[in-house]
């Protein structure tokens, strides 16, 4: 039986949960929708497949950095913990809240998609897609509220079922593609962008792929609840990324075996169109059910992340102390309730595309900041125990930081409104930080005065 940490978190998790958390957090909206956008931007098969390989490599390079940080500072909360230790209170405060918003916004666009797909299965559902989204988040909240063990076991079940389902569809498409007649070319072919615009197109595509790999770091949010983090965290990160990358690349190869790139670009759901050519009318229902289950698994995994960010912020005085409360079974009930409520509110006010673009740039910036913490802590705290040390230091960490900066710049050029929103958020954070800092000082001064 796992021992309790001082704050009540249960140490019961291992490598199996970590891999399930990566699969559950990553595979979902990206593989269902992003291939169409990529095919429109990158109208060459080698680029279409290659961009997924690049995304997998970047995720692995990121894991190389984060694994060192997670086992060196084995606390709940993820990147907030590392950035605060490396750069101080304000950067930690800012990135902690950015990370929480990213997690909530990610779940919000997942809920939007769940509502859309669920409505296809039950068009007469009272309240429509929004009601379906609400029912899903309430169900997942109840699962997490029962305790850490039930949440972790259900994540293993959902992630395993999701991986097997995708692999089954990959086999169906690869085998069926050998006998399917060639799909007629659409009337309007994709136009190749001029050479001067290719870098911008690649930057936009790269940041979309980066976002489809987002969530590979989910296990580090629960490091404090891991029995042997120094061993299982690196294994979970690299093992989970490898499985996800294999599924992503094979799925896109399977799509190309059935549909030409131009048809993928003009399809809203390429996987549904590809399987329809092989399975007929039943394909639509099969893919829709798969989408609902997949997205529920994704949202389930997000509910591990965000409450633990609030837990860490609360423990350090950057949020109400109630958010650090933990039940005897390891559930973070106040943090869960706040997070679920925010997810619902955001899902009711935005569309998939708007939410996706809004968080993609923030997520890449947060990653770059986190990776740089490895280098800073190597200089400022060289004597900290490092059970896992980033391979290829300093060149591999520098490479993934540089890559992140380049695609941020390219995406910001292509989507300048994202930079405006980010700048406004940064400005708004300054007064909030000083107000909360003054509250922390008053609270810490009260015991001394008494």
From TrEMBL:
It is found in: Membrane. GO terms for molecular function: L-amino acid transmembrane transporter activity. Signal peptide: none annotated. Pfam families: AA_permease_2. Keywords: Membrane, Transmembrane, Transmembrane helix. Coiled coil: none annotated. GO terms for cellular component: membrane. The chain crosses the membrane at residues 12-34, 46-71, 92-112, 124-143, 164-183, 195-216, 236-256, 276-298, 331-349, 355-374, 395-413, 419-436. InterPro entries: AA/rel_permease1 (IPR002293), AminoAcid_Transporter (IPR050598). It is a multi-pass membrane protein. This is Amino acid permease. It comes from Sphingomonas sinipercae.
């Amino acid at each position: 039986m796992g021992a309790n940490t001082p704050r009540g978190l249960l140490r019961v998790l291992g490598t199996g949960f970590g891999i399930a958390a990566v699969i559950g957090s990553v595979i979902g909206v990206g593989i269902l929708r992003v291939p169409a956008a990529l095919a429109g931007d990158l109208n060459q098969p080698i680029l279409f497949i290659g961009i997924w390989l690049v995304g997998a490599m970047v995720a692995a390079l990121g894991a190389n950095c984060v694994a060192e940080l997670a086992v060196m500072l084995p606390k709940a909360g993820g990147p907030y913990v590392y950035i605060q230790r490396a750069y101080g209170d304000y950067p930690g405060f800012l990135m902690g809240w950015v990370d929480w918003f990213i997690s909530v916004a990610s779940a919000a666009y997942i809920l939007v998609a769940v509502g859309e797909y669920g409505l296809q299965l039950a068009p007469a559902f009272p309240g429509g897609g929004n009601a379906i989204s609400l029912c899903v988040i309430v169900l997942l909240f109840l699962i997490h509220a029962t305790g850490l063990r039930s949440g972790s076991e259900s994540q293993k079940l959902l992630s395993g079922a999701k991986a097997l389902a995708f692999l089954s569809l990959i086999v169906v498409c690869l085998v069926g593609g050998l006998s399917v007649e060639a799909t007629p070319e659409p009337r309007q072919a994709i136009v190749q962008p001029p050479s001067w615009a290719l870098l911008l197109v690649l930057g936009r595509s790269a940041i979309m792929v980066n976002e489809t790999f987002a969530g590979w770091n989910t296990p580090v949010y629960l490091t404090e609840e891991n029995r042997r983090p120094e061993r299982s965290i690196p294994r979970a990160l690299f093992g989970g990324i490898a499985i996800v990358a294999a599924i992503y690349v094979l799925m896109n190869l399977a799509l190309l075996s059935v549909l030409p790139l131009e048809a993928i670009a003009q399809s809203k759901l390429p996987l549904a169109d590809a399987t329809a050519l092989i399975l007929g009318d039943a394909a639509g229902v099969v893919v829709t059910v798969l989408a609902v289950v997949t997205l529920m698994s994704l949202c389930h995994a997000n509910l591990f992340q965000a409450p633990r960010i609030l837990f860490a912020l609360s423990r350090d005085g950057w949020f109400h102390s109630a958010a650090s409360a933990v039940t005897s079974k390891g559930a973070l009930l106040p943090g869960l309730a706040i997070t679920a409520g925010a997810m619902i509110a955001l899902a009711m006010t935005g569309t998939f595309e708007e939410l996706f673009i809004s968080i993609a740039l923030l997520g890449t910036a947060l990653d770059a900041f986190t990776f740089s913490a490895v280098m800073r802590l190597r200089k400022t705290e060289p004597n900290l125990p490092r059970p896992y040390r980033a391979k290829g230091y300093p060149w591999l960490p520098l490479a993934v930081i540089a890559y992140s900066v380049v695609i941020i710049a390219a995406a910001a050029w292509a989507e300048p409104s994202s930079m405006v929103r980010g700048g406004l958020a940064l400005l708004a954070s300054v007064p909030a930080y000083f107000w909360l800092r003054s509250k922390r000082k008053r609270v810490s001064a009260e015991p001394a005065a008494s």
